[in-house]
Write a structure and sequence with these properties.
Blueprint (H helix, E strand, L loop, with lengths): L30 H15 L9 H12 L10 H13 L5 H27 L2 H4 L6 E5 L5 H8 L5 E3 L2 H5 L14 H19 L1 H6 L11 H5 L5 H6 L3 H9 L3 H17 L3 E5 L7 H7 L4 E6 L2 H17 L7 H23 L7 E5 H6 L1 H12 L5 H13 L19 H7 L1 H7 L5
Parallel strand pairs: 1-3, 1-4, 2-3, 4-5
Helix pairs in contact: 2-4, 13-14, 15-16
Length: about 425
């Protein structure tokens, strides 16, 4: 992994001795897509309306598509308005980004309408227990995805799939098994998978979102409009500041309701995963008091540029302006904030509730780490468990969809500055460099 060598102006506390100009470039969209987007831009100049983030239009669209009107508590409107304002005023979205994000907002509103309808007609939903859930967290690029998909092999655990992440509630009547409902949700997820793989194969190689694979809880937070995915992938400074100042308990309470809905559809012991939990451990344990948490760790000098690369690719899917140096600063700041909050929270949490897993150990001996995690989470481990895990490892080798290349200099990052900023994190969790 390269380190910056050229001199240049400082770009923040994590970017000392940065090169004067970014060296990282996101690959362009495929030529047919670029031609299509060019024609779309030309059409907007001739009067064809571009996708808009008008609150009334978005709400009306969700009501029309579902035939439902009751959103339940209206407290979602404040975060939604802040998010829509950030999309319009800060994110510099291109037409495809506007269309994708407009669709995601409408889909979140539809989900809220459908969840409220289920709660109204089936009291069993509110009574659905969320017993001893298992959550994986840690900085991004610390092995959380690999561990999540390995743990999903355990038959006792019930994970969120990409299909459910995109549409957590049934699409038709509020029943669990309406004919054709699951097929419609799968078809939507398959289209999303194909679209991402076509438009950005490099992003798919970094973090493949496969329709039938386990996916992370960040999809559920999207329904609350307090979205760490938006905060990470786009430059929306006012929204970023706001979501870190507010009380996180309301979105976590709503996510718990969504998890209840998932378990109402298919029972099991919930397995969740998102780096977002790392900075909200105290709230996580407040809302899920009997949860078990697996906390992953890796050298920040590898983590920060790796996630910066991932977010630069993700941002390019939505925004017309990607500044690699700005991405590096934003990612470093967010990760420092996240680990500092985790350190404070861990002082208050008993060791029996959190298990630390080092990335190096997970890569070197995944079966040994899985055995240790199963014991911690009180899951059954035996020959069948090991066989399922070994099969997943054989079917999902590293670089399955391509090699991810990145370096500190690509994002204006300086190794010594990062070492200083993450010193407390390294010492607290015994994280080695390399």
């Amino acid at each position: 992994m390269s380190e910056p060598t050229a001199s240049g102006p400082a770009a923040g506390p994590a970017a000392v001795r940065a090169p004067s100009r970014p060296t990282f470039q996101v690959p362009p969209f495929p030529m047919p897509a670029r031609i299509g987007l060019g024609a779309w831009r030309a059409a907007t100049k001739l009067g064809v309306p571009a996708p808009r983030f008008d609150e009334a239009e978005l709400v009306a669209s969700a009501v029309r598509r579902t035939g439902l009107e009751d959103f339940g508590p209206e407290d979602f409107r404040t975060p939604m308005r802040r998010l829509l304002r950030a999309f319009d005023e800060e994110a510099e979205l291109h037409l495809l980004g506007r269309a994708v994000l407009r669709s995601s907002v409408v889909r979140a509103l539809e989900c809220r309408l459908r969840l409220e309808r289920i709660r109204a007609v089936d009291p069993e939903l509110e009574a659905t227990p969320v017993r001893a859930p298992v959550f994986i967290t840690g900085m991004q690029r610390t092995g959380t995805t690999k561990l999540h998909r390995l743990l999903a092999c355990a038959p006792e655990l019930r994970h969120l799939t990409s299909v459910e992440g995109l549409n957590p509630t049934p699409l038709g009547r509020p029943v669990r098994d309406e004919p054709g409902d699951w097929a419609r949700r799968v078809a939507f997820a398959k289209r999303a998978e194909r679209g991402m793989k076509y438009m950005s194969p490099a992003l798919f190689a970094i973090h493949p979102i496969e329709a039938d694979a386990p996916e992370e809880d960040v999809f559920l937070f999207d329904v609350t409009f307090i979205s760490p995915a938006v905060d990470a992938s786009l430059s929306v400074p006012s929204y970023t500041r706001w979501i870190r100042e507010i009380d996180q308990r309301p979105p976590y309470v709503y996510v718990r309701r969504l998890i209840q809905c998932l378990l109402w559809q298919r029972a099991g012991r919930y397995l969740g995963k998102t780096p977002h939990h790392q900075e909200n451990l105290e709230v996580l344990f407040d809302v899920f008091p009997d949860a078990k948490v697996i906390h992953t760790h890796r050298d920040p000098l590898a983590v920060v540029p790796s996630f910066s690369s991932m977010m630069a690719h993700a941002g390019a899917m939505l925004s017309r302006r990607i500044d690699p140096f700005e991405v590096g600063r934003r990612v470093a700041d967010q990760m420092v904030n996240s680990v500092e909050r985790a350190i404070r929270a861990r002082e208050q949490v008993g060791p029996e509730r959190v298990l630390d897993v080092q990335y190096r150990d997970l890569v070197r001996d995944p079966i040994g780490e899985l055995r240790r995690i199963h014991a911690f989470a009180e899951l059954e481990w035996g020959p069948a468990s090991e066989a399922r895990a070994q099969r997943w490892l054989a079917e999902n080798p590293q670089h399955k969809y391509g090699t991810h290349r990145y370096g500190l200099a690509d994002f204006g990052l300086d190794a010594e500055a990062l070492r200083a900023r993450f010193k407390a994190y390294r010492e607290r969790f015994g994280v080695d460099e390399g």
